[in-house]
Design goal:
Length: about 325
Amino acid sequence: MSKMVETLILREKNKKIPHFYGAVSRLGTRNNPNGTHESNEGVEGAYNSIVGGLYDRLTKPGMSVTLNAYPFSNPSNVSEGDYFPTIAKESQEFTELICGSLKPNEIAVTIGGDHSVSFPAINAWLKKIKEIGGSPLVIQGDSHMDACLNSETPSGNFQGMWMRPYYGFDIDCINKLVEGLPNSSWLYIGDLENEPYWDEDIESAFIKDNNIGHISKEMIARGESKDYLQSYLDKASHVYYTGDIDQFTNKVAPATGISGEWGLTRGEVFPLLEQIAESNKLSGCDLVEINPKKEGAKKTIELGQSVLETLLL
């Protein structure tokens, strides 16, 4: 029996049923995204657009699939002083929703919404891992690190800070919701250095100081990305994939908050997604930042659906 056939049989045997969680949110984007002159209003409504065309492709006859949704607050209705307490409260509620409803034979698939919804989704995943044991690995597909301190942020949006609390944050009510991660537990896949808001001094130092991995466009071009990814997968027991659609160039994913000519192509990303799926270690994932109200929504939604199909089938 070939290795490929063995892998497919193993994946089918251990495949979990997707449990969809709709994170109806643009709470993480109270201001215009950095470098843009328009709000990302509409991103909160992506859940129905994405799940509607995905449901049949990820299920089999007789399979019972659960869908839950959580409505986060509209940022327009949240005062400056209440912004972070509201994020903390609602993030905790979303985490509890996942932890309280996810069955042992299910995998949580969160669909946003702005990228800050990954914060409570990953918190729920980490709680489950703490119960069963093992080594966690978060893989973030993105063109932005989302690792600002509140004191550093150019936009004031938690959307650009949500990842930082896992390595220490400067807002107590957010910090209290997370536990630190062991070294080599976070890996970026994205064209980070080539987007215009990259800060070489701050962001490069953050990656180096915290032993965070990064698969860049240049690494992919050199043919080194698969071995590098495998070195992380080999050390992990459980993998979470958080996918911001702006990981892709705007030629294939235009309907998002911050898009540009930087980013990765389908041909650069999908072989890595297949490798993650074939590891048989994926135990949680999300897809965020698709805006069904923006131009090019149809092809952006279809791309996002293909990302989830590749990871979950």
